[in-house]
Fold this sequence. Notes:
The complex is a heterotetramer, with 2 copies of chain A and 2 copies of chain C. Chain A is an alpha/beta fold. Chain A has 8 helices and 14 strands. Chain A is globular and about 45 Å long. The two termini of chain A are 33 Å apart. Chain C folds into 2 domains: 230 residues, Glutaconate Coenzyme A-transferase, CATH 3.40.1080; 51 residues, no CATH class. In chain C, 31% of the residues lie in helices and 23% in strands. In chain C, strand 11 and strand 12 form a beta hairpin. Chain C is globular. Classes of the chains: A alpha/beta, C alpha/beta. Chains in contact: A-C, A-D, B-C, B-D, C-D.
Amino acid sequence: MSDFTPTEMMTIAAARALKASDVCFVGIGAPSAACNLARLTHAEGITLIYESGTIGTEPRVLPLSIGDGELCDTALTTVSVPEMFRYWLQGGRITIGFLGGAQIDRFANLNTTVVGPYDRPKVRLPGGGGAPEIAAQSGEVFITMAMGSRAFVEKLPFITSMGHGEGGDHRARLGLATKGPTRVFTDLCVMEPDPESRELTVVSLHPGVTRDQVQAACMWPLRFSAQPGETPAPTAEELAILRDLHARTKAAHAA
Amino acid sequence: MSDFTPTEMMTIAAARALKASDVCFVGIGAPSAACNLARLTHAEGITLIYESGTIGTEPRVLPLSIGDGELCDTALTTVSVPEMFRYWLQGGRITIGFLGGAQIDRFANLNTTVVGPYDRPKVRLPGGGGAPEIAAQSGEVFITMAMGSRAFVEKLPFITSMGHGEGGDHRARLGLATKGPTRVFTDLCVMEPDPESRELTVVSLHPGVTRDQVQAACMWPLRFSAQPGETPAPTAEELAILRDLHARTKAAHAA
Amino acid sequence: MAQFLSLEDAIRACVHDGDTVAMEGFTHLIPHAAGHEIIRQGRRDLALVRMTPDLIYDQLIGMGCARALRFSWGGNPGVGSLHRFRDAVENAWPRPLAIEEHSHAAMANAYEAGAANLPFATLRGYIGTDLPKVNPNIRSVTCPFTGEVLAAVAAIRPDVAIIHAQRADRHGNVALEGIVGVQREAVLAAKRSVVTVEEIVEDFGPRSPNAVILPSWTVTAISHVPGGAYPSYAHGYYSRANAFYIAWDAIARDRDTFLAWMDANVMKKTPADFAVHARPAALAAAS
Amino acid sequence: MAQFLSLEDAIRACVHDGDTVAMEGFTHLIPHAAGHEIIRQGRRDLALVRMTPDLIYDQLIGMGCARALRFSWGGNPGVGSLHRFRDAVENAWPRPLAIEEHSHAAMANAYEAGAANLPFATLRGYIGTDLPKVNPNIRSVTCPFTGEVLAAVAAIRPDVAIIHAQRADRHGNVALEGIVGVQREAVLAAKRSVVTVEEIVEDFGPRSPNAVILPSWTVTAISHVPGGAYPSYAHGYYSRANAFYIAWDAIARDRDTFLAWMDANVMKKTPADFAVHARPAALAAAS
Lengths: 255, 255, 287, 287
């Protein structure tokens, strides 16, 4: 079963964490692949919501944008964007907010705004979009990001979306009753925040990945749980369904 | 042409003041009859909005409530009630707000809340409903009310909807940029606020009505314009269309 | 996920003595059958919330179920007074009723704020009126950009919202259309919700992509009660019984007449008795 | 009442140098043809507003039409950067661009407040983020009931809003469906509005009673521009040209490539050239 890519492992690990009863606010890219894979495997009936207003959507191919026609065509209904952010996200209806980002720190705060100073950025990134409030208002947050020394950094130049802030009970002190990031799915491992300090801790390594590899792809000294497990390798069925989804998607987007 | 009732004259006078380009927020009763009469006579294309959310409605019979199915069946579209009050009324889209009331004072303030003390009312009336904000947020306000000494009173026990408050520039001092009540159509006459003091002034008497009759039906000493005209009597066409509308309505509501 | 329950079980599970209860429906889709079931089950001390109390709350108030009412217009539309509501306010019969009175705009905004999980709603409201003098829950906020002072009212967050809708599908999603009022807001603002429906269908089938739908996971209980809005109406199913609204004036004017009517038409009936009103409007018109 | 105008005349009448302009459409129904017309007419010093600047604003910014941008997400969805937007922010090319950056929730609420004629919007937003440190227009209000402190942003009230919709009827009413984004709010919040449409029909015909419609008296000008959303899409007419969004990355990455593409595909074209994209999706799929 070595015939899978790190990105596939990341997506499959994230998909497994979703339940049929979840109501997911889905970002584009790896989150969208993971949520739809879950829907097509063990979590039939899961509710997927995209910030474009589509509620309970069941796309046959992955959308390129969060507002592809496919999402609306297959949705239970589609509401306006103000309503989406007011009644559905702020209203507390989302169980899992699914985010990615350009950069993350040890407390799972995310940056998608700038690298360098805000006023004279070295790299201007797209910005927050829905993420700041997805991070605050979803029941809990899952993050998917490929590891690397530019992405997993000691200190963020800009906090776009709050994870656990400075750690500990920082969220609670700011009045947030939601859990914040509870899992980070990477291409090398799965992390969870420590129950006390909220610092990200490696809880399982993907098959064949070593601690040194993970540490090499992260700029802060990583914590590992006492006995990090090995992430179960993708099953043949998971891989087949994910690849089939990607193939359908590629064909559709090239059209 | 003496073959008409005072209520018919009131409704017809009010209808004549409406233009095809108006967007009217319509209350039940005389306002609804006047607006629909206007639509069926000289103001074809007038936009009628009821607070139930029906926009651009064209009822074949007068509704008994502001939410009869007829209103929705014939509307351009129907929006939610929060949206109606937020985007359409508060949004400043209404040119004419049409109100009635249990009691009115010389500055066209209205009471539909209580007679007697609020905490121990002699008569508990229905309350404000949409009126407080219709009075404030419509471009201008037309009022239809039958005269009488219980209705046209020296001092209101309760101000449910502000007309011209204490008169003069009271509305402007409270930050209201809208005109407030510009005409009051009664069963005996038509009144308009004085341009300076804003006190209601009789500008035309319905056919056959004397100044004494009007004053007898009003508890404050009424102002009359220098040369009050005579309201033109209903035309045969106006009467026929109004009576036809009422006949259709009566048959429909008895069903 | 919504559970399919009998109306008896749904009310028993979701409505408790002392609850804040919002039964909504703006003229259209008023959940009368659910109101009758609450009366039959003898609920007490309810804090009722509703823009237009209408006949449904006249009945609940007259039967002594309510301790309080938050509302904006308490009349029989196009007919006149709600006599049981008036008797409670004017004479404390059958028991005192604490009222919190608003305008429609404020109530609608307060439901909207509740659905949006905000603690309060902001509106350009109540200017020059006496309502703020008698309602301490009409307050103000100042715009941090322009300095303007606007009205503020507390969000409505009921313990339970009860509405009537046209259809549910087998997953428990609920579809309504026509005059949709504040029903979605009431359900989304509430901790629990009961929806009575005309029909339960396998699938909603072809529809507007922007159809008004409450997903199953926003609803607590669904009860199949055809005709359950009568004498209100269900767009596409049956028309408003305007004649009954007119007739209610005489029934409710007198305490004994009212009690006799309630005994015969509510206490001795069941939700299934509403089915007689469910004849589609098209069929009724043709007969 | 809405006037039916050519797109050239509509833009000339409604969009002036220095205006605050909101062109909306959330992925769906983006008014690309109108954007091209603004570029051709050489408008300058525009203060642009849009949740997701997308290719349409990449083009306006790259052609030097804009002095400012209020936005919440400036990327090419699913592809990567908006290179012209980045070049303006990182290198002030072709001119400096003042940015006012928000979250989606704040922008959506700000449009909603604009449509509702409120000076500001209240949201549970920005908690723990750095955005308030760089945007002085993110402020706060305190709930007068609970004492909670919430985020406040100024309402969006553009001089002109521009959207694309599926249909207008002969009275100038506008119907849109599918992903409706913040388009209605943008039009209702604006002083003037331009709507490009796929089709002008005699009558909308049978439809949901709750269809998404902008009445004629809320719209300034309507222009018939079939295909006018391309490479965005029109639900029921044609699909999103995802391949073009992917291709844009290479076109926009280089200033000269960009300028050459704009010259050939915008400056030398007319609104009628969008018609080629208007082939209904069903037909296109069948061919």
